[in-house]
Amino acid sequence: MKRKLNDNYVPEEQLELATETPDVAFTALGLDPRILKAIVRQKFAKPTLVQSRAIPLALEGKDIVARSKTGSGKTAAYVLPILQSILKLKASPTYKKCVSALILVPRRDLANQVTKTVESFAAFCAQDIRVENLTWKEDDNVQRARLSNYPDIIVATPGRAAVHLNNSDLSLEGLTHIVIDEADLVLSYEYGQDLDDIAKAVPKGAQAFLMSATLKAEAELEKLKGLFCQNPVVLELDEEEKESGTVTQYTVKCAEDEKFLLAYTIFMLKLIKGKTIIFVGDIDRCYRLKLFLEQFGIKSCVLNSELPVNSRVHVVEQFNKNVYDIIIATDEHEVLGDEEGNGSKRRKTEQAPTDDTEPTEDATTEDAPAEPEADDEDATAKMPKKDKKGISKAKQDKDYGVARGIDFRNVACVLNFDLPTSSKSYTHRIGRTARAGKTGMALSFVVPKELYRKHKPTSIPSAEHDEEVLARITRHQEKKGNEIKPYAFDMKKLDGFRYRLGDALRAVTNGAIREARLRELRQELIKSEKLKRHFEENPDDLRHLRHDGELRAAKVQAHMRHVPEYLLPEGGKKVAQEEIGFVGFTKESQNRIRKARAIHKARGKNKQAAARKANPLQSFKAKGRK
Question: Which residues form the Helicase ATP-binding domain (predicted)?
């Protein structure tokens, strides 16, 4: 185990638990004026609990192990003291150019978010502090050239950092800070060997930060402390922070097809006000739900591991800017392991439909969409491949994850359309709302065992154990003092909507889902790869790039967008009228054949019809000689 020495080369006394620190303002923390100016620009009113406790200790040079809930400001808690230390170090006449800080994160999405956070806090000292993100997919020679200039802060996954260390592209001789963000997730991603290689290269005495929302297992904690820390200060703040932002939790017990009915009703009648993240079990469910909602004119965008990382990052950014109201996200790489003793590991799922899914005519191999054009080499390389049954299977990003780490702002509701498989995953999902002291709601659909597989087209294997998982989730939340209440939904009042449910679900066939999945991937690859340089040169164009367009892979019926008055439950009439407005009695013409006939008729191409109706004497025209 490494020894942490002070300035006099004497071992420091061990500090197991931090003493209480009163709340202070950022100005009282002794930060550089340029950093304070950036904090004001970010509209941070006062430090959060983890920031007020961690920053003073970090400025003293202490190693820190912090467990704090999602949305509590853990990133700023280690970024601000690192920036302060680097600025102070560069003011010294003996300063030598080197990499000062290495920030390790489990995923590329999170690396991009941390990089932008560092850049925002270093906005007024950008000439003195340079940060590099090593997680983007680019040529190794390009990254090698950027590393040769010794950036002050490097953000990377343990895998990328270990590769550059082993290739001698990255030197950590002058490193003063090492950070592992989402520490327990880093371990669950099987980065053990990479962490060992990095630990050997980190100089003795480098200050370490281990940050996580659920770092409880003693084995995990002791391993990381042994690799990077010596006598760390342990901050366990999740219990103190539970009152700062509250999540009201509800469950609805329903059949598998009724999940779609409830989702349609909730969004059509505006029962949820504000932005919503809908979690589903796999990628096919993601597109099934999107196509279903399209039947009723409800816009949404998808977020899954198939999409290019640039598109995923842009979706989150636009969602945070209130461009989109609904995100349908997959959680196929969720972290398993409940708090009752078993360790953490990731769930890896296959995204192909199961063999026992009810077949449809559209699900045959002949109906599969065509492959992309041959000249689009980048897109072809990444397009979904097909197995022997003709099912599309795309290469997924193993570093993808949306249930934790990613900073979703101002989320009003987390809708667990498909219940997660562990209470730990549930905790991280609902952590996407009620962030930064705000309130939020979590609504979960639970399928009773007697209703499982009663509607095969909408069935998912994980729903078989919903009641058992809910029992574990309830026990875990009760330990934290949280209550999960049943949501009072009178299903009888929704009987009028059921015939619409059947029409919409029949339109969303397996073939339509496969086509939508391929079409979305083609579109996002073009946006991500072909236009990347254009967007770098023309950033204003990026604002007009949307991800919630209609896929149109399923048959869309115009009347489904309008809710007739007789279908509305009591009290819903006024809401629907306010939101929808005037709806005419005449049907909108969307039939392309009928439209084409009308155009041909107007041009005089339908000669037989014109001959029957036209009067030759009235249509006769004569011109005299000039």
Answer: 55-233
Residue 233: beta bridge partners? 64
The answer as to whether 621 is a domain residue is: no
Which of 183-187, 498-502, 564-568 is modeled with the greatest confidence? Answer: 498-502
Residue with tokens 């009724």: 258
Tell me which of 241, 258, 274 is where a domain ends. Answer: 241
How many independent structural domains does the chain possess? 2
Average pLDDT over residues 234-262: 82
Positive or negative, the Cα torsion across 148, 151, 157, 161? Answer: positive
Q: Where are the alpha helices (H) located in 480-531, listed in sequence order?
A: 498-507, 510-525
231, HSE (Cβ side, Cα atoms, 13 Å): 14
Helical axes 256-268 vs 283-294, angle rounded to 10°: 50
Q: Residue 362 CB: number of other CB atoms within 10 A?
A: 18
Domain that holds residue 333: 247-346+394-560
Q: Are residues 285 and 151 in the same domain?
A: no
What digits encode the pLDDT tens for the residues 524-582? 776 665 556 666 666 666 666 666 666 665 666 776 777 777 666 665 555 444 443 33
Residues 277 and 233 in one domain: no
Please give the C-alpha separations between residue 75 and each of 68, 151, 209, 533, in angstroms, as whole numbers.
11, 19, 10, 29
Nearest to 174 by CA among 143, 217, 203: 203
147-164 exposure pattern, b = at least 16 Cβ within 10 A, e = fewer: beebbbbbbbbbbbbbbb
Q: What is the CATH number of the domain that holds 234?
A: 3.40.50.300
Residue 403 domain-assigned (yes or no): yes
User: What totals of helices (H) and strands (E) does the chain contain, helices first?
Assistant: 23, 18
For residue 181, give every residue at least 6 positions away whose Cβ sits within 8 Å of its Cβ, in sequence order, or none: 74, 75, 78, 103, 104, 105, 106, 110, 114, 211, 212, 405
* DSSP track, 385-452: EE-TT--EEPPP-TT---SSSS---SEEEEEESS--SSHHHHHHHHTTSS-TT--EEEEEEE--GGGT
Judgement on whether residues 230 and 336 belong to the same structural domain of the protein:
no
Task: Convert the pLDDT of each residue in 389-424 to its tens digit.
Answer: 343 444 555 555 565 557 788 899 999 999 998 888
Residue in 580, 602, 598 with CA at minimum distance from that of residue 590: 598
pTM confidence score? 0.64
What is the phi/psi pair of residue 356, to 5°?
A: -90, 10
Beta bridge partners of 102: 154, 178
List the beta bridge partners of residue 441: 248, 413
Is position 165 within any domain? yes
Cα–Cα distance, 568 to 577 (Å, whole number): 10
**pLDDT of 34:** 94
Do 51 and 142 belong to one domain?
yes
190 plus 288 within the same structural domain:
no
